[in-house]
Amino acid sequence: MALPEINLQRQRRTSRASVAAAVGNTIETYEYASFGFLATVLASVFFPKESSTAALLSTFAVFGTAFLVRPLGSVFFGILTDRLGRKPVLVVTVVGMSAMTGLIGLLPTPESIGITATVLLVLLRITQGLMVGGEYTTAVIYATEFAPAHRRPEMASRVQVGSVVGLLLAALVVVGLSANLSPDQMHDWGWRVPFLLGLPLGAIGLYLRAQLGETPEFEEVKIEAREGEDPPIRTATTIDPTSKSFWHHGREIFLIAGVAVLHTIGFYMTYTYMQSLLAQLGLGLFESTAVIVVALFVGVVAVISGGLLSNRIGARRVLLLSSASTLFVAWPLWDRIVASGESGSMGVIVLCVALVSGLPALYASSTPVVYGTLAGVARRGVVTAVAYGVTVSLLGGAISFVAQWIVNETGDPRSPALLLMAAALISGIAAFNLPKSVGGSQQ
């Protein structure tokens, strides 16, 4: 077989692997995001006896329960990723997540079975959290390990594109429902539709992931392990190439966690909490979600562009530029969103929300290659899953609750911008301390 044909086949296999990982993650994120976009509706369904503010806080707390157990899922699936392989974990997580999402759509309400309905909702959210704990990082590792070094940022960023597209699909479903159903219909049965759609979407994800093969780097680890040789940690970009134990990866764990701060807070603040904030500023469910849809389209473009840019100038530089930009523009943009919400200037709201979400999205385009290459192959699954999972657990589930609590305490809807600025500062420092060659990108 001619060399050009061999290279073409390798390129196609790499593209298929990254797309399959991304599409599966799209489905997972859609199912997870549906809960967030329906927060105001679910608050009235599952906490009908509480005030609107207390019910919304309770719903955000239920949303956050999934994040509490995420580190457990990260540890469990991270170990399986390193021992059994990347593919089995990708298949199990998409099946488990889809099943739990469908069950949420079938839940009886407190009107029929009382508090048991809320307890069941919490249990299903907890199980979702366990599944998600191993999903994202395994998909990132899978896409990264299939890619040639010079294209790793781009290939890894496709998984992040999948996450944003999953949010976009969830937002579009909610927009479509709210445009065609009355508030009473949304309360009675409309909220179930996005969750029930998780079942056929999960079947699609299962089909795609069942076609995947194992990554070449993991196969090499298994072969050398069977032959009694040291795991080939040297094949990965590591800070300490000689470290073999999980506990010897402390520096990588802290750097991954630091990089994940803005990724996490930026993601949930601008795409999940922002919708609730716009609703509190007077926008209806349709208008507030439609604004997020526009922002998500911008986010898709930002992530794709960021992955390509990282190929050219390096992931570390993209992380530094985007975190610094977020730090300086978050407050003025958030201020304009609040002022425009109070005056009803929809055009300004759309523009400012797109901008304040676009910069964290650009930042997030270059985080996957860091997650997928910083630790060595032999411990990559558990190190990355734990570092990322703990960060998302502490910040992702709590950020909407904390942001709303700050607004309630201060009476200033601009105050959550400070959380975004703090995240940009922390992650900028972490990015500065990354190896210049991280991800195999060109510096």
Strand coverage percent: under 5%
What is the radius of gyration computed over CA atoms, rounded to a whole number of angstroms?
Answer: 21 Å
**Distinct helical segment count:** 19
The portion of residues assigned to helices is over 70%
Helix-strand sequence:
HHHHHHHHHHHHHHHHHHH
CATH classification, class level: Mainly Alpha
Please tally the β strands and state the result: 0
Spatial gap, N to C terminus: 34 Å
The multimeric state of the shown protein is: single chain
Going by CATH, the homologous superfamily would be MFS general substrate transporter like domains
Stretches with pLDDT under 50, minimum 5 residues: 1-8, 229-243
Give the biggest sheet.
none
CATH domain fold name = Growth Hormone, Chain: A
Structural class: mainly alpha
Net shape: globular
Q: What do the pLDDT scores average to? A: 81
CATH architecture descriptor name: Up-down Bundle
Q: How many individual domains? A: 1
Notes on the protein architecture:
Helix 4 runs antiparallel to helix 5 (86-105) and helix 4 (70-83) runs antiparallel to helix 18 (380-410). It is built from 19 helices and no strands. It starts with a helix and ends in an 11-residue tail after the last helix. The protein has a single domain, classed as Growth Hormone, Chain: A (Up-down Bundle). By secondary structure, the chain is an all-alpha fold. The radius of gyration is 21 Å and the shape is globular.
Short précis:
With 443 residues, this protein is mainly alpha-helical.
Write the layout of secondary structure elements.
Layout: H1 3-37, H2 39-46, H3 52-68, H4 70-83, H5 86-105, H6 110-113, H7 115-146, H8 152-180, H9 183-190, H10 192-196, H11 198-210, H12 216-226, H13 250-280, H14 285-313, H15 315-343, H16 346-364, H17 367-373, H18 380-410, H19 417-432
